[in-house]
């Protein structure tokens, strides 16, 4: 459905030192440097997938989204999305895609949201019946009824984001590109946006590519992740594969029925300790969590056990360190 092969994109960026002299010099003798934003990016995505496209700041995520949505033209490389090359067959391509940039608005700032929706209806030539049924569905699922008559500038960030997502789906796109859709949202709005993305993916089979720095978005939505850094693709796999490969320890917290003596277990490090409770970091390469619990239960009367895996956030930080990005 989405085939991207060998994308390269560089930007020429003007360079100058601070100060008035440097500013005047740069008028007569401008200096530029080239930033390689993308270097040989390739991937394919099937219908119905939700893919998390992740990487640190400046990795090239937005540049990729802009190229595959037809906003930017790459220096070289191929891209075919439902048979269209985004930057060549723009009109056909945009009918198939919806795009949301969390940091920018596609809605008219000073007019009610509904006016922007009508404009989009005309731009995409959406038939009246399709527009009406999609609007009804989006209004119900995104809880838009109180927002549609409000000018965009009066909406909160979370309210605006719901309206933006609604706008991107009015024309029934088969693919949705989301660039940081939950940035700045509170916990309730994040949950609403995530639930909605899951619903349209499951019920309408909409394929989703999502860039985010929020790893809970990835955990809630994406089975597959593509990791990029400094413009290069570094990893492409499922979240489970990532966890299996990079989770090095788990935390075991045990509450005892009575106060206990010290006990040292090979492969564990004590994180905190009272007479009734111990919290251990378990090195999974040395010892299994079940063996740790079994040793503890042989020695003490256990009241409660909690096992916590390394949070995805931490795994990603380790991953960035490992790839030096
Ligand atoms: N219009 C532009 N002009 C010059 N350089 C650009 C332009 N757009 C992006 N870049 C550069 O290309 C690189 C990749 O930028 P991009 O915005 O794609 O990263 P990103 O992964 O989306 O980052 P972030 O997570 O911070 O949004 C960066 O070094 C950035 O400075």
Automatic annotation (TrEMBL):
Query: Keyword annotations for this protein?
Result: ATP-binding, Nucleotide-binding, Transport
Q: What is this protein called?
A: ABC-2 type transport system ATP-binding protein
| Molecular function, one GO term | ATP binding
**Pfam families recorded:** ABC_tran
Report the source organism. Alkaliphilus hydrothermalis
Domain (ABC transporter): give its ranges: 22-255
Q: Which SUPFAM superfamilies match?
A: P-loop containing nucleoside triphosphate hydrolases (SSF52540)
């Amino acid at each position: 459905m989405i085939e991207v092969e060998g994308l390269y994109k560089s930007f020429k960026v003007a360079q100058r030192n601070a100060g008035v002299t440097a500013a005047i010099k740069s008028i007569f003798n401008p200096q530029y440097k080239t930033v390689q934003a993308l270097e040989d990016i390739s991937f394919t995505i099937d219908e119905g997938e939700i893919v998390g496209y992740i990487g640190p700041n400046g990795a090239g995520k937005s540049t990729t989204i802009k190229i595959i949505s037809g906003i930017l033209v790459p220096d070289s490389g191929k891209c075919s999305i439902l048979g269209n090359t985004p930057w060549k067959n723009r009109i056909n391509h945009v009918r198939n895609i919806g795009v949301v940039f969390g940091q920018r608005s596609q809605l008219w700032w000073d007019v009610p949201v509904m006016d922007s929706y009508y404009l989009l209806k005309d731009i995409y030539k959406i038939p009246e019946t399709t527009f009406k049924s999609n609007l009804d569905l989006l209004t119900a699922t995104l809880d838009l009824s109180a927002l549609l008559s409000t000018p965009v500038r009066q909406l909160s960030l979370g309210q605006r984001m719901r309206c933006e997502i609604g706008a991107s789906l009015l024309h029934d796109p088969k693919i949705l590109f989301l660039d940081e859709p939950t940035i700045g949202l509170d916990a309730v709005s994040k949950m609403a946006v995530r639930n909605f993305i899951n619903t349209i993916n499951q019920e309408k089979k909409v394929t989703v590519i999502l860039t985010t720095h929020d790893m809970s978005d990835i955990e809630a939505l994406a089975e597959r992740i593509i990791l990029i850094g400094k413009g290069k693709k570094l990893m492409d796999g499922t979240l489970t594969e990532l966890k299996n490969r990079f989770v090095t320890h788990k935390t075991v917290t045990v509450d005892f029925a009575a106060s206990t003596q010290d006990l040292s277990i090979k492969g564990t490090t004590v994180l905190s300790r009272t007479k009734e409770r111990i919290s251990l970091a378990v090195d999974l390469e040395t010892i299994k969590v079940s063996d740790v619990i079994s040793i503890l239960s042989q020695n003490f009367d256990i009241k409660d056990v909690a096992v916590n895996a390394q949070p995805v956030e931490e795994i990603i930080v380790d991953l960035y360190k490992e790839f030096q990005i």
